[in-house]
C-alpha cells in the first residue's frame, strides 16, 4: 500500500512537471516597441493568435534599439520593431532570420495648441524642425527607438546638432510618456500616429498635430525571428508560427480591423 501511494505521488508530480514544461514551451517572448503596446494593438491581436495556436506571447515593450539588442543576446524569441535599416543590419549580421514587413503608419509632429513656432501650414518636416530649433522647445525620446532614430535623421539632414542645446530635452522614455512630458513642457515632439490617436484623449493632452503627411514621415514595422543558430535555446518554431500568422491573411485582417474609439485605423497592413 505504501509503495502504491509513493508510486502515485511520483506519477502525479511527473504529470505536473510535464504540464508546466508544456505550458512553458508554448510561450514566446516578443521584444517590441512601445508604440505597438501603447496603442493597444497587442491587446487586440494577441488573444486572436493565442486562441488559434495555444501559444502565449509575452511582450517586452521598449525602444526598437533595445528590442533588437534583446534579440541579439537571445533574451527574446522574436522582434517586432520599426527601424528598417537597423533590422536589415541585424539580419545581415546573422542575429535574426526571416524578416518580413507587417504594417505601417506615419509619424506626426505634435505641439501646443498655440503653436509658438508657427509650424501649422508648413508641408516640410525639415522646415518645421528648423523653425522649432532655438525658437521653442523639443522633447526627444532619446532612447534609440525607431522614433528617436527617425528624429535624429531629420536633425542630421537639416544640419542641426540638438544635443546639449537648452531648447532640446532627451527623456529616455517610451512614446506615451514622452508625449506627456512634451505636454507639460509646452514643447513639440515627434510621435507615431497610432500612439497619438490611442492616448491623446486618455492622457488629456492639450496638444495638436501641427505637421503630417510628409513622405519622410512614413513609418514601417517589421517582424523577425531570432536566429536559432546563434541561440539554440530560443523557441524558433513557435516564433515562426507568430511571424507567419502576422503576415497571413488572418493576421493582416486583424491588424486592419484594429481601430481607436473614434473609428480611426491605427496601422495599415502591408505584408508582401
What descriptive keywords fit this protein?
single chain, alpha/beta, D-Maltodextrin-Binding Protein, domain 2, eight-stranded mixed β-sheet, 272 residues, 11 helices
> So how many helices?
11
Euclidean distance between termini CA atoms: 64 Å
Which percent band covers the strand fraction? 15-25%
SSE series:
HEHHEHEHEHEHEHEHEEHHE
Domain count: the total is: 2
How many strand elements? 10
CATH class of the largest domain: Alpha Beta
* Residues in helix, %: 40-55%
* Main sheet properties: 8 strands, mixed
CA-based shape? globular
Based on CA atoms alone, the radius of gyration comes out at 22 Å
Please summarize what this structure is.
The chain is an alpha/beta fold and about 270 residues long.
Task: Give the arrangement of secondary structure elements.
Blueprint: H1 2-25, E1 27-32, H2 34-38, H3 41-53, E2 56-61, H4 64-73, E3 78-81, H5 84-92, E4 96-112, H6 125-132, E5 138-140, H7 146-157, E6 168-170, H8 175-185, E7 189-192, H9 193-199, E8 207-211, E9 218-226, H10 236-246, H11 249-256, E10 268-269
Parallel strand pairs: 1-2, 1-3, 5-6
Antiparallel strand pairs: 3-9, 4-7, 4-8, 4-9, 4-10
Amino acid at each position: 500500500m505504501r509503495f502504491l501511494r509513493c508510486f502515485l505521488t511520483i506519477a502525479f508530480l511527473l504529470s505536473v512537471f510535464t504540464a508546466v514544461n508544456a505550458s512553458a514551451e508554448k510561450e514566446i517572448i516578443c521584444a517590441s516597441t512601445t508604440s505597438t503596446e501603447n496603442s493597444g494593438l497587442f491587446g487586440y491581436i494577441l488573444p486572436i493568435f493565442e486562441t488559434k495556436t495555444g501559444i502565449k506571447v509575452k511582450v517586452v515593450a521598449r525602444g526598437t534599439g533595445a528590442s533588437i539588442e534583446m534579440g541579439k543576446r537571445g533574451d527574446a524569441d522574436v522582434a517586432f520593431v520599426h527601424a528598417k535599416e537597423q533590422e536589415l543590419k541585424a539580419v545581415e549580421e546573422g542575429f535574426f532570420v526571416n524578416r518580413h514587413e507587417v504594417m505601417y503608419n506615419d509619424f506626426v509632429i505634435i505641439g501646443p495648441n498655440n503653436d509658438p513656432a508657427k509650424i501649422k501650414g508648413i508641408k516640410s518636416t525639415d522646415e518645421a524642425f528648423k523653425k522649432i530649433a532655438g525658437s521653442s522647445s523639443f522633447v526627444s525620446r532619446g532612447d534609440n527607438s525607431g522614433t528617436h532614430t527617425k528624429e535624429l535623421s531629420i536633425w542630421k539632414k537639416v544640419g542641426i546638432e540638438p544635443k546639449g542645446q537648452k531648447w532640446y530635452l532627451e527623456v529616455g522614455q517610451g512614446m506615451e510618456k514622452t508625449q506627456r512630458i512634451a505636454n507639460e513642457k509646452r514643447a513639440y515632439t515627434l510621435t507615431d500616429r497610432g500612439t497619438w490617436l490611442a492616448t491623446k484623449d486618455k492622457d488629456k493632452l492639450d496638444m495638436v498635430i501641427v505637421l503630417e503627411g510628409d513622405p519622410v514621415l512614413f513609418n514601417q514595422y517589421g517582424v523577425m525571428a531570432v536566429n536559432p543558430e546563434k541561440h539554440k535555446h530560443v523557441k524558433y518554431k513557435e516564433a515562426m508560427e507568430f511571424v507567419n500568422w502576422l503576415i497571413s491573411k488572418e493576421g493582416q485582417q486583424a491588424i486592419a480591423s484594429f481601430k481607436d474609439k473614434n473609428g480611426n485605423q491605427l496601422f495599415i497592413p502591408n505584408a508582401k
